[in-house]
Design goal:
The chain is α+β, with helices and mostly antiparallel strands. Among the domains are: 179 residues, Cyclophilin, CATH 2.40.100; 187 residues, Leucine-rich Repeat Variant (Alpha Horseshoe); 115 residues, no CATH class. It has 33 helices and ten strands. The strands form two sheets. The chain has an eight-stranded antiparallel β-sheet. The two termini are 52 Å apart.
Length: 725
């Protein structure tokens, strides 16, 4: 991107903005054959050395698939089962409910499984009846589907069935369902239930899931605390999950010394420790800093070190945490180094501290992924450093470096910073323009106190909203709703932009605009638009209107559930049969090769769609636009490369029984039935994703590659190999 000066039609507003600042502003490897068809029996150790301690969560693979995968039912050969999947895609709950009475147990089981994705409340009574079916497969899938309905009223019935159920797989799904939906009455019944020894991990996870939702008691909390020191690693991990995911620590605060004693007794490889680190940090006590420093400096698991580096935010200027964070800039995992860099600049450093950061940056000038994150800590003492940084990198070849530089400019005062961001918005490549707009949006939060800046920001945000670009609209719409822009006609501009768009193509941008109208406070002009949108044929628009109207009127608004027709290509059963039960999806990336077994029977529409994209070469050259250490890597946006794009159609959410363990392949979405081309892969166990996102495959090669992939790395080539078995 070249510097050519501000565009002529924005120069007046920009000049006024700068005057306001003066008065009161702030400072590819070769592709070879990959053999599918005789997948090896692997353990988690083959997926990367950091995962060996997660074996207790049934991460051992059996014939190349996780132990919890739904058994094959012949879907690819049976037209009657295929008809049920077609009904699932069309969201025809009534036909699936009738199929629960079919004489064939395989049909009944497939119907129950399909209802887990349809999630129709009307299916509840029939699914409850199916819990007493003669076939364990039907009972298992009915229990799974009931856990997907979100209806707490079924909780006691699920626990009651546990008292009589003998089949281990069914009991597993019953405990899972109770954890997902059970209320206080189900908890009371669960506390009185005796479970088998091998089910204690499932019970702990159920109690954890309920506690995270605010359903807990003295008995359940005591069990979770005791579970932290259980000899069974699965019980420890499931119990620790509660403490890590519960946002409010108050219910367990009185047990904090027991929690600290538990983590102090853990091996630094124990994944339960990562959850306890998250929980202890919510106590905001300086007493836990030595624990975080120890895990950052001594744990052999990069994910634990990355968590510790992130969790030290707020204490980065204390001597020991800062020393550990500075050392972590040289960590062998760049995820850890990048988290440490972000934490080090969490608060403005003192002069000597800034000199330390600059010294590291000067010694590693080409490591832009870390240096770019250190810029906010260097700039207060050397404002020109960011511009020298940008001059070193080509905005096309090192786009990520420029994104980090533009991001840093959000906190730098002065005319040059504003001009650089304005020029990037007007003239930069799409990703650079987006980041520059985000930086200006962040600056607005501080600069809005200066009236002289308002015209510039109005013009910037107004142009972004009028552009129709989903990313720009999503960034600017909420800012444009600010009452400071009322005299400029902000509500009218938001309505004008909304009414100029068409769904489903513009559904995401329309949702952002409706959200902004909800924030506007204008009940006279915004309310009628939002009320009309409640009847919009596209579900995402209706739901956005409901949320916005609830915000505007400060009262809950119920949105009618209407499943939109699917606009995805029809299922091709001959094509799916040719792919086979477990085809292999291979990604050759900048960091090496990853291969995934896909579960065609579990998620046929998803597997068909991604297999086609890979075979058409649409994933070739596409970046991993989002990487969150110890969570996921995300890619597949071949339309835009920024997370806002898709293939031009949506496929259905196929909510499977595959749990989100390490290396599981899932579909990204913006809500139910909005999946397109984007996918993600989990770095570690993520139970909160189970049943909410389509899980349709798992890693069988390349755990080290999964761990190494950084944001903006690319898929060089993708292809699919059919299952020859």
């Amino acid at each position: 991107m070249t510097t050519k000066g501000a565009t002529r039609d924005m120069s007046r507003e920009l000049s006024a903005f700068l005057r306001g600042l003066v008065r009161g502003g702030r400072h590819g490897p070769a592709v070879g054959p990959f053999r599918s068809g005789a997948l090896l029996v692997l353990t988690v150790l083959s997926l990367g050395g950091c995962a060996e301690q997660e074996q207790p969560w049934r991460l051992l693979l059996r014939e190349g698939r996780p132990a919890q995968v739904r058994p094959a039912d012949g879907l690819l050969e049976r037209a009657d089962l295929q008809d049920l999947v077609e009904r699932q895609v069309r969201r025809e709950a009534a036909g699936l409910i009738r199929a629960l009475a079919d004489p064939d147990p395989t049909v009944r089981a497939r119907a129950a499984y399909a209802l887990g994705s349809v999630q129709s409340p009307e299916a509840g009574p029939a699914l409850l009846s199916a819990l007493t079916d003669a076939s364990p497969a039907v009972r298992r899938d009915a229990a799974f589907a009931l856990g997907q309905l979100g209806d707490a009223r079924v909780g006691p019935a699920l626990v009651e069935r546990l008292r009589h159920e003998e089949d281990a797989a069914v009991r597993h799904r019953l405990l899972e369902a109770v954890g997902k939906v059970g209320g206080s009455d189900a908890l009371q019944a669960l506390e009185a239930l005796e479970v088998r020894r091998r089910e204690r991990g499932d019970l702990a996870l159920a109690l954890a899931r309920m506690g995270i939702r605010g359903v807990h008691s003295e008995v359940s909390l005591r069990r979770l605390v005791d579970g932290l020191t259980d000899a069974d690693p699965e019980v420890r991990l499931s119990s620790a999950y509660y403490f890590g995911r519960r946002s409010d620590p108050d219910p367990w605060r009185r047990y904090r010394e027991e929690v600290r004693a538990a983590i102090d007794g853990y091996s630094l490889r124990d994944p339960a420790g990562r959850y306890l680190l998250q929980g202890l940090r919510r106590l905001r006590s300086q007493l836990d800093n030595p624990r975080l420093v120890r895990w950052l400096t001594e744990s052999p698991d990069w994910r634990a070190r990355a968590q510790a580096a992130r969790l030290l935010a707020g204490w980065e200027n204390e001597f020991e945490p800062r020393r550990a964070l500075l050392a972590a800039l040289n960590d062998g995992s760049r995820h850890v180094a990048q988290n440490a860099a972000e934490t080090l600049v969490n608060s403005p450093p003192l002069a000597g501290q800034a000199a330390q950061l600059r010294g590291w940056a000067d010694a590693h000038p080409d490591d832009w992924r870390v240096v770019g994150r250190l810029l906010p800590g260097i700039m207060p003492w050397d404002p020109d450093y960011v511009f020298r940084y940008l001059e070193r990198f080509d905005p096309v070849e090192q786009e990520g470096a420029w994104i980090l530089g533009l991001r840093a400019l959000s906190s730098l005062g002065g005319e040059r910073a504003v001009r650089t961001l304005s020029e990037a918005v007007a003239e930069g490549a799409p990703l650079l323009a987006q980041e520059a707009l985000r930086s200006l949006a962040r600056r607005w939060e501080q600069d809005r106190v200066e009236p002289a800046t308002h015209a510039f920001y109005w013009e910037t945000f107004s142009r972004a909203v009028a552009s129709g670009d989903v990313a720009r609209v999503s960034i600017a719409a909420a800012r444009l709703a600010d009452p400071a822009f009322r005299s400029f006609g902000n509500v009218e501009r938001l309505i004008e932009a909304y009414e100029s768009m068409e769904a489903p193509e513009d559904a995401d941008a329309m949702a952002a605009l409706l959200g902004a109208l909800g924030l506007s406070g204008d009940t006279v002009r915004a309310r009628p638009v939002l009320e009309r949108a409640l009847d919009h044929p596209v579900a995402a628009v209706r739901q956005a209107a409901g949320r916005a109207l609830s915000t505007l009127m400060e009262t809950p608004v119920r949105v009618a559930r209407v499943d939109s027709p699917s606009d995805a290509p029809a299922l091709d059963w001959a094509e799916l049969a040719a792919l086979g039960r477990y085809p292999t999806l291979v990604f050759d990336t900048d960091r090496g090769r990853m291969a995934f077994a896909l579960d065609t029977e579990a998620a046929p529409q998803t597997v068909q769609t991604l297999a086609r994209f890979a075979r058409e070469g649409r994933y070739d050259g596409v970046p991993f636009h989002r990487v969150v250490p110890d969570f996921v890597i995300q890619g597949g946006d071949f339309e835009r490369g920024d997370g806002f794009g898709g293939p031009g159609f949506s496929i259905r959410s196929e909510l499977t029984e595959v749990p989100f363990l390490r290396g599981v392949l899932g579909m990204a979405s913006a809500g139910k039935d909005t999946e397109g081309s984007q996918f993600f892969v989990t770095h570690s166990i993520q139970p909160h994703l189970d049943g909410s996102y389509t899980a349709f495959g798992w890693l069988i090669e390349g755990g080290d590659v999964l761990d190494a992939i950084q944001q903006w790395d690319r898929v060089r080539r993708a292809w699919v190999v059919a299952d020859a078995r």
